[in-house]
Amino acid sequence: MSLKIYNTLSGQKEDFVPVKENNVNIYVCGPTVYDYSHIGHARSVVVFDTVVRYFRFIGYNVTYVRNFTDVDDKIIKRANESKMTSEEVSLKFIDEFTKDMTALNALKPDYEPKATEHINEIVELVQDLIEKGYAYEVEGDVYFRVEKFKDYGKLSGRSLEDMKAGARIEIDERKESPFDFALWKSAKPGEPYWETPFGKGRPGWHIECSAMSSKYLGQSFDIHGGGKDLIFPHHENEIAQSEAAHGTSFANYWMHNGFVRIDHEKMSKSLNNFLTIKDTLKSWHPEVVRFFLLSKHYRSPIDFTDDSLKEAETSLDRIYSLFERTGEIKSDSKNQEHSKFWNEFMEAMNDDFNTAKAIGTIFEGVREANRIIDSGENLEKAHSIADEIVKMGNCLGILLLSADDYFRGKPSKGGEKISPEEIEALIEERKTARKNKDFKRADEIRDNLAQMGVVLEDKPDKTIWKFA
RNA sequence: GGCGGCAUAGCCAAGUGGUAAGGCAGAGGCCUGCAAAGCCUUUAUUCCUCAGUUCGAAUCUGAGUGCCGCCUCCA
């Protein structure tokens, strides 16, 4: 069963063949750290986290790199506004980003390089490009000579001719072509800078990824990922820089995730229609957010609405409710035969990480397990399906908790706070009332708890509670 | 202006040539003191429209309509 990946470079699904057998080297563009991260950033991270988890799950040795762009116009602007240094701004938001991603169960990449810690590598790469005639200096700036790189446009499917026809790009007289882009920018007063052979300055945006990916993964590696908005110009430029300098093909597979939308529009800082991860997690359990993000194929846009989050929550509740029924979940494999659900799940994931379909098969498993439990026969089978569902969930970075921890860890939607001890006491009181057929009091207790967002479920032998 | 993507039930969403997964919501039933949870049954003769190719199309081709994105920073 081969793994297929949709490659932006070819515009089709291709069988995945690694550079080195059993190994995957993957580089994903991380954030520019000048503000809190929003759900759009979360999608990219969760999608590629799931890709990495899956590769590891099926036995690949993965080296996963995700950078931090920590020197940039926006960071400088932010620093000036808040009377902090650029470094303070970037460190603060790297910290916030890390907290958000940890909350979302995103694995830490093997390397998280920062641009500012790779200035030497960047300068060397720029010099190399100058020597090879692919770059030129103008008054302390260094530009990439786009016309000289014949494959320019191969990723985004555009040609320089097309671009000239349509674009109204601001003409910079100093550049040979309007599409030449900055590899190095000279420092203006008050901006952070490094001393280099081309003067005081800082790296352009694209060059860091070329320099850092080759340092950690080699000049040719397997997968390069990021949001669709990075295809042009960022990834196009990375290809140009890297392939011009190294003379080898850069990344073999390019994967791009679709946007998160609000009111049918791309969520973005500039449209000011974004929701931070931090705020979202105040209302929704992290696994719910993750489930939501994985409920649609990663290349399609996904609309963020309260209703769809609510739906994700209801769906996830359904899965965890099964675990409540099967009791303590043991996820140690006992080397059993895999169920048909398992095989369908793997097929879905092998087909360009079709998490939406994969989740569908999880639910088929949930129904089957519930059916078996209701029939009262072969509970062992129900248990083993539940165990498999846990493993499938773990591939997706969800179902990592016990049912109790999940249900009781959900952000409370009821206004009042009530302690587990108080809830237990009320359940005791209700139990007595029910025994005495005092259903009025029993229902009153249940209704009161419901008001506070606590749901009771009477089981044959006990009553369990959870947050709605 | 250039380039690209999407359109499947009330809603969300798989399916890319062989006769419509899954979830939510709705209806009926079982279970329950009543609920909740769960299970069963049920909910698209049909996949934006119109042509075409084919024994056969939601799936391929062409035209049209609508929505979105990239071309400036963006996950």
Strand order of the largest sheet: 4-3-9-10
Low-confidence parts lasting 5 or more residues at pLDDT below 50?
none
Give the terminus-to-terminus CA distance: 41 Å
Domain count: 3
The CATH architecture of the largest domain can be named as 3-Layer(aba) Sandwich
Give the overall form: elongated
Give the averaged pLDDT, no decimals: 93
- Please provide the count of β strands: 15
- CATH class of the largest domain, anyone? Alpha Beta
Q: Roughly how many Å is the radius of gyration?
A: 26 Å
Strand content: 5-15%
> Tell me about the biggest sheet?
4 strands, parallel
Describe the model:
The protein is of the alpha/beta class and 468 residues long. It folds into 3 domains: 4-262, Rossmann fold (3-Layer(aba) Sandwich); 284-409, Four Helix Bundle (Hemerythrin (Met), subunit A) (Up-down Bundle), CATH 1.20.120.640; 420-467. It has 16 helices and 15 strands. The protein has helices at residues 39-57, 73-82, 86-103, 119-131, 160-166, 205-217, 231-246, 277-283, 286-294, 306-326, 340-350, 355-375, 379-395, 403-409, 420-435, 439-451; strands spanning 4-7, 12-15, 23-28, 61-66, 135-138, 141-144, 182-186, 201-203, 221-227, 251-257, 260-262, 265-266, 302-303, 454-458, 463-467. Strands 4-3-9-10 form a 4-stranded parallel β-sheet, with helices on both faces. The protein has a 4-stranded antiparallel β-sheet with strand order 5-6-7-8. The chain starts with a strand and ends with a strand.
Question: Could you give a quick summary of the protein structure above?
Answer:
This protein is of the alpha/beta class and 468 residues long.
